[in-house]
Sequence to fold (520 residues):
Amino acid sequence: MSWEAALDEIDYIKGLAAELGGDERVERQHAGGRYTVRERIEKMADSGSFIEMGSLMGGAEYDEDGNMTSFTPGGYVMGLAELDGRPVAIGGDDFTLSGGSPSNVSKMPHDFAQPLALQYGIPYVQLREGVGHSSKQDEDEGHMGLPQGHLWWQGVRLMTKVPVASGIMGSVAGWPAAAALMSHFTVMVKEQSQIFPSGPPVVERAIGETLTKEELGGYKMHVYESGQVDNVAEDEEDAFNQIKTFLSYLPNTTSEVAPRVETGDDPDRRPQELLNIIPENRRRGYKMRDLIGHVVDNGDFFEMRRHYAGAVITGFARLDGYSVGILASDPMKMAGALDGDSSLKYAHFVDLCDAFNLPVVVFLDMPGFMLGSAAERKATMRKGIHALIASAEAGVPKVEFNVRKSYGVAADAPNSLGLPDGINLRFGWPAGEWGGIPIEGGVAAAYKREIEAADDPDAHRAMLEERLLKLRSPFRAAHHGDVVDLIDPRETRRLACRFVKLAQPQLQELAKRQKRAVRP
Fold:
């Protein structure tokens, strides 16, 4: 065979691979409103940047003369690409081939995509639409093998070194579902994506529960209810953009610091809207996301898990061009009280910021742990300990703005973030009120007998509360050093920008420590 003939055969096989599962299955994919895996990578990556790895891998048969008689492409398309000029390893399941189920001819992410991300120190993006193991494969192989556990060690290593982001693009079950969730960020497409250990037929056979795919594992289940998936996208393009935005805030590895981006927003800008954003009536709520938007560069805030455990707000932004993690209370959700779900959400986000050397900016308005039987059933305090542990273990610097309430053990989590190695850099707003227990509940508990013995218990309780309300003055707290300073709310952006800039040397040192820790 001449070299020209060999090259022709390479082109021929690559052409077969490009056909995926054939015209009929590609049309079925499109009829369902979904792109094929190659279309997804093409639309997401910078034009012309994708370099495929393993395109010749698959099931091939040859005749006695060495001529190929059939070829079945592998079920995972992967390689290198650029997203907004940034190199990434990227891959996705080919749903047009056996529903994305792996087989003995399938390429797997750990063949090329994951090792590329690990060795080159670049993010890994996976676009999942696969159904995992198939009983047909067992029949073809003539036996049912014992799960070996070998699929996961590389994914675990990956998450300790580089950012991993997953798009859940359709129905995902079995090990592809687990692989998708082994990520720092996950997004699914509204009314198109579902994720579960096994789909409706297996569920019905196993436990007799009859559900649609959407009911079992759609976005309403996993973005709003279980919190298993971070975000939901309106369509596939939105999912691609969310992944790219998420990655834009992070460095390439845990041994680096995210680069500064020129945003054009003056770090000394004084947002006038902050002056009266907190209502004078301490029982009224306000829009914390508006507050955040006034402080961060150009109002750009990328939120994670907005629809789950809403009392805590988590996301990324920039201050003077530097990437930061934002932690905030939402007084419109349970008055900002911490429950079990929001505690775990808090801990997950703090761990993420700590892993990728992002300083944390806190806007605190937290009346304590959520109370009542529903909160107790959620093991609120036990899960709340996870928030305390995450804060205690985090080494990244933080700056905190106590915009209103800060009470009890729950508030100890953000208040202790970055300690004991860093200064507790806390600033108070004029609306600040802080203590070990909210005044109303504290009075009812501590003065119970005195209130019951009074001629007018309600009036006596009100008198006691009014007396103690005078002690909640933020000026008294400042006199005792509870905060670094009381500030004009309009100074919040300037101070936050200055803090983040001054934190960069410490972040660089933390990154060096990470590098020494992971060095073989």
